[in-house]
Specification:
The complex is a heterotrimer of chains A (179), B (577) and C (55). With 179 residues, chain A is α+β, with helices and mostly antiparallel strands. Chain A has 2 helices and 12 strands. Classes of the chains: A alpha+beta (179), B mainly alpha (577), C mainly alpha (55). The complex binds protoporphyrin IX containing FE (HEM) and copper (II) ion (2 copies). The site of one copper (II) ion (CU) has 7 residues of chain A, from loops.
Chain lengths: 179, 577, 55
């Protein structure tokens, strides 16, 4: 009958704490610190970190970069919409844009090569969700993010949009092939 | 004229205006849960691939309404009732400025109507996050703003009541732990609402054309100070409800006032920082900010939750052992009143919140692990464990406690009530677990068609994902049945339950005070300090609640294992830097 | 409000600082708003505001 009554002692701060709680608090604290240090640890020793490199941009400016890349490295077109497929050289800057409701253009990358992948949105928030590897990132309009990716398995990959972006959100797909 | 009545069964004092406000807020919350629950059924039946009930536009509209109605309206109305209860009733104090409290209530109602109207008119299917620049109708934002202002008034009424109680010396010593928990919730609520104002007012002005541009990344930073902190209100409040129920049912006393209150202090200081875990894959924000904030400053707020996770069941165990249930590790738990929905609801809430919601939340809020979870259906899986199994079920358990005490009605359908927490908690746990599982396979949240039917680019998630979403669908239906049972029992009791007070008519169930003669106390006697413990200073004599310690270690081991499993998953995806 | 607990009763024992803090709702309110405002909101807004413009 006491959790909803004032503490039994006027000065409750000085009432000694039971051993059980102390032990638990210490164990939990150690675990909390381990979890905390895992994050910086992974920045140093782990391979999956988002760089946080990003720039403010505008749709027009970004689109121009995408177009320049397409003009240079386009290899073919896909689907009735004739979406360009681009095969940029290893190590280069690759520009992907998100807009209602597609990922543009499609990419052909080489296995075990690194690319500086830039992504931005032309309109609303979108979600970059690369399947089936399951890499997910938030794409925010007005910002160009840069992530260095190193595809380590070949195959066909699909970019799903996993941030709600309006009525046809569920049709928004893109492709990356890794050779 | 006397303003207080004393509940003849529990001895609690109710201040007439506070009592009416609690009833009105609780009932308004229940109505929202009814609406939100029906919408939840429509949503889960659409995400169940074999059923796929709604068309796309309706789905997104209904999902927007479901999120807002449940998470914001239902939870916060009920929280207001809890604040008034913890402030006025538990402190035996009059409520400060009841008129302001009513004004707040009215604003909240107007807000609900405005926002829901906007959503169902069809032009505001923007999800509850309403990320700019996707536009919603002005009265969508306006409704949220009004609702928030109303809730803010409620918070200040609660703080005012603390001042009144202190000045009028209605209690001795420090405020009770439960009230302190409510205070924590109130403080977090004020930060939450201030952040909401910071972002929603400009967004409203943008929607009517007074502001031309709102930065999309800025919006996300500030919106999540609202969006996530609001969940921390729930955590603080439902932990307080756990303590309350432990106290009422078992006469349990906190194992240590110092430890429990210090844990709440950690909540006040650090819990709200974790809003950052929503932005871990956002462009351009440094890892320093992400790591410091997403870890609630080195996980000190997680530490606090782990402490409550020990001290709440620990307090129950100690009380049970003192009653002689001392055999083995778990007699105290086996012989707990599992048929009493107040207890079962509270305990399932505790376990579900800790094991499902808590562990998954910390794991997914790890900077890098977010990469494999962000915006997948894992996320709704996680928060249905926290906010539905945890918070909602705790509210339900509290309702069962309050129907006789506050509403003066006997509960109807006790047989059904016995099962209700199991149906609801069990069904919702299935939803949570299987959505989380589907999320690890990449299935997107807020997504109408996981099959991408007819899409020229074609893509299919693994077959298992469909199975998992189907099982979640079954769990959802069970949970909806449990939710319907709750509403049937509670609303039915308010309407048809046996009257425990002759004047407890139908109107009285919805906020009208009982007969004047019932309020016969002018000023309640001062609330004394809890009686000193029989065996003082348990201190070093060993473990008082060994069973709980075992449970806590089980939690810790599951936590550690699951945490590292996710690092393992992460290490298998493409290298990123 | 803060020191009332200490003056309220016989001057028996001084209330420890931590208890005084925890017993003071408005101090807690201040802390509970100041900390997240500084660490989360202001720092976060600065982070976004200092993102460089694309070349
Ligand atoms: C009664 C049974 C319930 C069922 C069957 C249910 C089911 C669902 C489902 C399937 C989703 C959609 C996942 C997606 O596609 O992204 C969802 C979203 C959500 N639910 Fe529930 N839910 C229920 C109750 C609740 C309650 C009680 C709350 C809050 C207290 C709640 C809060 C939410 C929120 C906040 C969202 C996210 C909306 C968004 O993404 O904007 N749900 N629910
Ligand atoms: Cu999209
Ligand atoms: Cu959150």
């Amino acid at each position: 009958m006491t959790s909803f009554m004032p503490p039994a002692q006027r000065i409750w701060w000085k009432v000694p704490v039971g051993r059980q709680e102390i032990v638990w608090i210490l164990i939990a604290l150690v675990w909390c610190l381990i979890m905390f240090f895992m994050m910086p640890y992974w920045h140093v020793y782990g391979k999956q970190n988002i760089s946080n490199e990003a720039y403010q941009t505008t749709p027009a400016k970004y689109q121009a970069k995408v177009q320049a890349m397409i003009d240079k490295y386009k290899v073919r077109e896909e689907t009735a919409q004739k979406i360009p497929v681009v095969a940029p050289p290893a190590g280069s800057d690759v520009y992907l844009l998100a807009r209602l409701w597609q990922w543009y253009p499609m990419l052909e990358l080489e296995k075990d090569k690194s690319y500086r992948l830039h992504i931005s949105s032309m309109d609303w928030n979108h979600g970059f969700s690369l399947q089936p590897v399951n890499i997910n990132m938030q794409i925010v309009p007005g910002y160009e993010m840069v992530v260095t990716v190193t595809p380590d398995k070949s195959g066909e990959y699909t970019i799903v949009c996993n941030e709600y972006c309006g009525i046809m959100h569920h049709t928004m797909l893109g492709k990356i092939w890794v050779k | 004229m006397s303003q207080f009545r004393q509940c003849p069964d529990t001895g609690l004092f109710f201040h007439k205006p506070a009592e009416s406000l609690m009833k009105a807020n609780a009932v308004a919350g229940a109505v929202c849960l009814l609406i939100g629950g029906i919408l939840g059924l429509l949503v889960i039946l659409t995400r169940w691939p074999a059923v796929h009930l709604l068309p796309a536009d309706a789905f997104y509209m209904v999902l927007t309404a479901h999120g807002i109605t449940c998470l914001i309206f239902w939870i916060i109305f009920f929280e207001m009732a809890i604040l008034y209860f913890a402030g006025s009733t538990l402190l035996r104090s009059r409520l400060a400025t009841p008129r302001w409290a009513w004004a707040g209530f009215v604003l909240m109602i107007v807000g609900v109507i405005s926002t829901l109207t906007a959503i169902f008119q069809g032009g505001s299917s923007v999800m509850m996050t309403s990320y700019v620049p996707m536009p919603a109708a002005p009265h969508f934002y306006l409704g949220l703003i009004l609702f928030a202002v109303g809730a803010l008034i409620g918070c200040f009424v609660f703080l005012g009541t603390l001042v009144v109680a202190k000045n009028e010396k209605t209690y001795e010593g420090s405020i009770p732990l439960v009230t302190f928990g409510a205070l924590t919730a109130c403080i977090i609520a004020i930060f939450t609402i201030a952040s909401g104002a910071e972002i929603l007012i400009p967004t409203f002005l943008w929607s009517v054309g007074y502001i031309s541009h709102i930065d999309a990344a800025m919006y996300r930073v500030i919106w999540w100070a609202l969006g996530h902190s609001s969940q921390q209100i729930n955590v603080s409040a439902h932990v307080a409800v756990w303590y309350l129920i432990a106290g009422v049912l078992f006469g349990a006393r906190p194992m240590s006032e110092k430890v429990s209150r210090a844990a709440y202090l950690l909540y006040i200081l650090f819990l709200q920082l974790a809003s950052a875990h929503h932005l871990l894959t956002d462009p351009g924000i440094s890892s320093d900010w992400k790591i410091f904030n997403t870890s609630y400053a080195m996980y000190l707020a997680v530490l606090a939750s782990m402490i409550h996770g020990l001290t709440v069941p620990g307090a129950i165990e100690v009380a049970q052992r003192n009653k002689g249930l001392t055999n083995g590790m778990f007699e105290w738990l086996r012989k707990a009143p599992w048929g009493n929905p107040v207890f079962s609801g509270m305990f399932i809430s505790l376990i579900g919140f800790g094991f499902l919601g808590g562990i998954s939340g910390v794991v997914m809020g790890t900077e890098q692990i977010s990469i494999i979870i962000h915006n997948t259906i894992y996320v709704p899986g996680h928060f249905h464990a926290t906010v539905v199994v945890g918070t909602t079920l705790a509210w339900m358990a509290l309702t069962y406690l309050l129907i006789p005490v506050l509403f003066r009605r006997k509960m109807i359908l006790p047989g059904l009530a016995k099962w209700q927490p199991y149906l609801f908690g069990g069904g919702m746990s299935i939803v949570a677990i299987f959505h989380m599982a589907a999320g690890t396979l990449g299935v997107a949240r807020r997504h109408w068609d996981m099959g991408f039917a007819g899409n020229p680019l074609g893509f299919e998630y693994p077959g298992t994902a469909y199975l998992l979403m189907g099982i979640a669908g079954v769990g959802g239906v069970i949970a909806v049945i449990g939710g319907a049972a709750y509403l049937l029992i509670t609303v039915g009791s308010l309407l048809f339950g046996e009257k425990l007070d002759a004047s407890a008519g139908i109107l009285q169930s919805f906020g009208v005070p009982l007969a004047d003669s019932v309020y016969s106390t002018e000023k309640p006697e001062r609330l004394p300090m809890a009686p000193a413990e029989a065996v003082e200073g348990h201190g070093d004599s060993g473990f008082e609640a060994p069973g709980t310690f075992v449970l806590a270690m089980v939690l810790l081991v599951s936590f550690v294992v699951y945490y590292f499993i996710n690092w393992k998953y992460l290490s298998e995806v493409w290298p990123l830097s | 409000m803060a020191d009332e607990t200490s003056t309220q009763d016989a001057p028996e024992e001084k209330v420890p600082v931590m208890q005084q803090i925890i017993d003071n709702p408005f101090l807690l309110l201040f802390l509970g708003i100041a900390l997240p405002t500084v660490f989360y909101t202001l720092w976060g807004v600065m982070e976004v505001a200092t993102i460089p413009v694309a070349p």
